[in-house]
Amino acid sequence: MAAPNKQQAKQNAKKIINRWSIGFASVAWIPGSHYVMAAGDLALVMQVGSVYGVELDRTAAATVFTSVAAPLIGSFVANSILDFIPILGWAAKSGVSYGVTRAVGEALIGYFNDCSPLPE
Length: 120
Fold this sequence. Notes:
single chain, 120 residues, mainly alpha, 5 helices, 0% strand
């Protein structure tokens, strides 16, 4: 549901991003979880877009995610490598996942704020 203005949309988006960040951090320690979390990434994009009044299907959400998250590709690779380091690597993945999700979320806020039809 779209917020009444961009300021409220930003506040709502931060809440959504916080929930996804905590959720991803909660499961990131599980080996191979980053494959499952990809679907969550699309849901995150669609939910943040929705509060800004921008409705996306899964294909459009994937395009937005790819363009917004491109600068963070190193973090995704590092997260994948941590799968191969038992215990410590798996534990570190939670922190990496939390940080990456927050960074992607902030980038999404900037992206959708620029293309949103909502009033300031």
